Amino acid sequence: MDASVEVRSVVAIRLLALSVSFAAVLAGTMPALSADLKDPLSPLTSAESSMLCFRRDYSPEHLAQHPKQTTKTVLLAFQQGYYPFQQAYVTIVLTPRTGAPKRIAAGCIWWEGAGIDTSGRKLFANFDKPAAFGCMVPVENTDREGGYFLIDPAPDAKSLTLFLQSPITTVPDKLSKAQDNFVTLGPEDRTFTLKRIEPKACASFKAVKE
């Protein structure tokens, strides 16, 4: 089985459990959605072949001013969920100053209360919006969770803010013999603001249903 299909399958299992849990918590308590609670991205990917692409490139000047930031480019591909209960399938590519790019893949759902764990604790201190995309990252070929990230899109869908947990699991490199695939991110590599660009820049990450 292709690695990307295996990743999507694990994402689907974990996301189904997550979505059922969220539904139980929110059932009977969610009011009519205000503008702050509406998902601005999914309507733009309602067609099966649609994809949104977001990117941020950091200049040498910016990196010189932030020596602890190791990421020089962030690319995010957002497309329709692979399964009915999965609103979005997201691929993130982090390109460091040195070394090979790291790819993260996850299924995501839009929900009120994203970024808060079952104990009511905030997972991201710098996120305070009422709703966002919560994305659970799987560990390939296991039922374990490999991290979590949030996507907070602008109302006009022209930009978004990405919040990453650390460490977080990455998609295994087929040429690597490492048993654990993950990346540890410093404080300056966990929050990024990305701008929407032409979808063709993310075309190589398009999920194909089989």
What's this model, at a glance?
The chain is of the alpha+beta class. It has two helices and ten strands, in the order αβαβββββββββ.
Work out the count of structural domains: 1
Order of helices and strands: HEHEEEEEEEEE
**Number of separate strands:** 10
The side-by-side strand order for the widest beta sheet comes to 1-2-3-4-5-6-7-10
Overall mean pLDDT stands at 81
Number of helices: 2
Net shape: globular
Largest sheet data: 8 strands, antiparallel, barrel
End-to-end CA span = 11 Å
Radius of gyration: 17 Å
Share of residues in strands: 25-35%
Taking pLDDT < 50 over at least 5 consecutive residues as the criterion, the unreliable ranges are 1-33
Overview of the molecule:
With 210 residues, the protein is α+β, with helices and mostly antiparallel strands. The chain has one domain (3-205). The protein contains two helices and ten strands, in the order H-E-H-E-E-E-E-E-E-E-E-E. The strands form two sheets. The protein has an eight-stranded antiparallel β-barrel. Strands 8-9 form a two-stranded antiparallel ribbon. Strand 5 and strand 6 form a beta hairpin. The longest helix has 24 residues, at 3-26. The chain is globular, with a radius of gyration of 17 Å. The termini are close together.
